[in-house]
Design brief:
Order of helices and strands: EEEEEEEEEEEEEEEEEE
Radius of gyration: 19 Å
Strand content: 35-45%
Helix content: under 10%
Strand order of the largest sheet: 1-2-3-4
Distance between the termini: 54 Å
Structural class: mainly beta
Largest sheet: 4 strands, antiparallel
Number of strands: 18
Length: 259
């Protein structure tokens, strides 16, 4: 039947980010994670102390911070949970340090483990196939690298991830429906009329030998979308029974800012 088409249309300036709750001031990009049903926020205060806070039952309220004094963060944090262990990746002057524990409170006593050859690297983490892995970014002119815990050493020396290059630090999330790894990254193309920049999403699967192979790639917002930033994104896929659109991918990122 003929009838009016109803739609809700927003742009990046009109989109509602929801309720904003003040947690803490931080000198690096903080990280938020749900582990064993509890929400945790990791940040670094002005005294350069790495801190962990758990959310309380009252909305917008957080417990007093727990200091993770065994590492001195120099870059943006990333926390991820496989449901059993919580892993926190912390860039330091000596390289990317990894803290891991079964309970979040146990991170305060966890011994840091360095991922080899990661001085100056930016990091993000993801869980795929029940294994926690790290993506390392060293600049637009170098390949994105991947590392994971080894059998004979805590974390393996990073190796190139497929043939991926990115103009920003990438991030990834596993698609629970397909088993693919969804990677968010950036591209930058030089042209006489000006540089062209895009956010992109690519899907990867592992072959029989365990190598990552790209299955597809798309521009976020389409070729005419024009969305881009110069900071690491966060990718989320709705998968819970209470989520309004299971399978929907969220690409969350800060726009372009001058350094």
């Amino acid at each position: 039947e003929a009838g009016p088409v109803r739609a809700e249309i927003t742009d990046v300036y009109g989109a509602d980010g929801g309720i904003l709750n003040t947690v803490a001031k931080t000198v690096v990009v903080a990280s938020i994670v749900v582990h064993r049903g509890s929400l945790w926020v990791f940040s670094v205060d002005r005294a350069r102390v790495l801190q962990a806070r758990s959310a309380l039952e009252e909305e917008g309220q957080f417990a007093e911070p727990v200091a993770l004094a065994q590492v001195a963060a120099t870059g943006d944090l990333w926390a991820t949970s496989d449901g059993t262990h919580l892993t926190l990746f912390v860039p330091t002057a000596e390289g990317v340090a990894v803290l891991a524990a079964r309970e979040a409170a146990g991170l305060a006593e966890a011994a840091p483990v360095l991922i080899p050859d990661t001085i100056g690297s930016q990091v993000s983490g993801f869980v795929h196939g029940e294994r926690t892995r790290a993506l390392l970014w060293d600049g637009a002119d170098k390949p994105v690298r991947i590392s994971e815990p080894g059998e004979d050493e805590p974390w393996l020396t990073p190796s190139p991830f497929a043939d991926l290059h990115s103009s920003i630090a990438p991030a990834a999330v596993a698609d629970p429906a397909t088993g693919e790894l969804v990677v968010g990254f950036g591209t930058e193309t030089k042209a006489p009329e000006g540089d062209h920049r895009d956010w992109r999403v690519a899907r990867y699967a592992t072959d029989a030998a365990g190598a990552w192979a790209k299955q597809s790639e798309r521009i976020v917002g389409g070729a005419a979308g024009g969305g881009y930033g110069n900071a690491r994104p966060v990718l989320l896929i709705e998968e819970g029974p209470a989520d309004p659109a299971p399978g929907r991918l969220h690409f969350i990122a800060r726009g372009w800012t001058a350094h």
